[in-house]
């Protein structure tokens, strides 16, 4: 895959080449773009996601000012190995990847399951993290997180029955605005036509569901020890990770700010990508 020539080694997410990196016995598949200066932003993906599930508007928007690095978790997409069944192991894998990439400090953007992973990284490896953006997520032991499995299976079945992508139901509200935003988001995910990632396997998907379920049943972590600035974002009616968790995170994190989007669900940051990118850049 040839990189399109552009200033600052920036290319668009649609054309960013997929690279691999060996670390801890795993071949990590990753993509990166944006200027080579400053602290890079490492993106941490959601349940069932591969590289092609990131919204190009969000990636390109943040990569206009910051180096953006995204990778497939162990056992997911084009990354080798077997998928862990705990969020803690996923966090260790992320740290392994970040260090192998030669980075001493990063900003984290974690969406949904990625936001859970980001919290664990900030607690376990505080010196590695400068700032953190977490969206559509909740704390360990958070309200309704142990029900993600049931909701995911129900809406996956609903998607199959109606021949629609389950994300239309899982990420967006069923209002005219939500339905339209869902269709636009899904269309953006198809913009990349070359060098696409492998879809997640059923086995890896089940392992991730188990990890989220366990995280939902855990005792609440002491988030007061996360001293980094955190931007918490969500839609006002997230049915995957109930929005009460976003308010809870904002209350418990010592240095946080909160953005809640109206008439939006789990994928609120994708539905309101222009506002979200603006907020994220101001925050970073």
Structure overview:
It is built from 10 helices and 8 strands. The protein has one domain (7-283): 3-Layer(aba) Sandwich (Rossmann fold), CATH 3.40.50.1820. Helix 1 (56-63) packs parallel to helix 10 and helix 2 (87-100) crosses helix 3 (113-124). Strands 1-2-4-3-5-6-7-8 form an 8-stranded mixed beta sheet, sandwiched between helices. The protein is an alpha/beta fold. It is globular. Helix content is 37%, strand content 16%. GO terms for molecular function: catalytic activity. It comes from Kribbella caucasensis. This is Pimeloyl-ACP methyl ester carboxylesterase. Residues 40-269 form the AB hydrolase-1 domain.
**What name does the CATH topology carry?**
Rossmann fold
Judged by helices, strands and strand pairing, the structural class is alpha/beta
Strand order of the largest sheet: 1-2-4-3-5-6-7-8
What's the helix-strand series?
A: EEEHEHEHEHHHHEHEHH
Largest sheet, if any?
8 strands, mixed
Number of helical stretches of at least 4 residues = 10
State the CATH architecture.
Answer: 3-Layer(aba) Sandwich
Mean pLDDT: 94
User: How many distinct domains?
Assistant: 1
């Amino acid at each position: 895959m040839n990189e399109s020539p552009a200033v600052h080694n920036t290319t668009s997410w649609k054309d960013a080449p997929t690279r691999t990196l060996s670390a801890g016995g795993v071949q990590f598949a990753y993509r990166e773009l944006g200027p080579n200066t400053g602290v890079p932003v490492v993106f941490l993906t959601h349940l069932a996601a591969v590289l092609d599930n990131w919204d190009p508007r969000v990636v390109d928007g943040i990569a206009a000012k910051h180096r953006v690095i995204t990778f497939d978790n162990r056992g997911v997409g084009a990354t080798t190995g077997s998928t862990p069944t705990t969020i803690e192991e996923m966090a260790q894998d992320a740290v392994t990847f970040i260090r192998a990439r030669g980075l001493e400090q990063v900003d984290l953007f974690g969406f949904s399951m990625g936001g859970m992973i980001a919290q664990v990284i900030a607690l376990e490896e505080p010196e590695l993290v400068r700032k953190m953006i977490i969206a559509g997520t909740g704390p360990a032991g958070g309200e309704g997180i142990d029900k993600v499995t049931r909701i995911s299976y129900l809406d996956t079945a609903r998607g199959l029955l109606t021949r629609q992508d389950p994300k239309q139901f899982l990420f967006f509200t069923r209002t005219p605005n939500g339905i339209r935003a869902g269709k636009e988001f899904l269309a953006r995910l198809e913009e990349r036509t070359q060098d696409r990632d492998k879809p997640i396997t059923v086995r890896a998907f089940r392992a991730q569901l188990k990890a989220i379920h366990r995280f939902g049943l855990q005792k609440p972590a002491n988030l007061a020890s996360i001293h980094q600035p955190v931007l918490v974002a969500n839609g006002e009616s997230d049915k995957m990770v109930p929005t009460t968790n976003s308010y809870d995170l904002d209350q418990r994190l010592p240095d946080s700010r909160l953005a809640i989007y109206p008439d939006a669900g789990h994928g609120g940051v994708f539905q309101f990508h222009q506002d979200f990118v603006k907020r994220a850049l101001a925050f970073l």
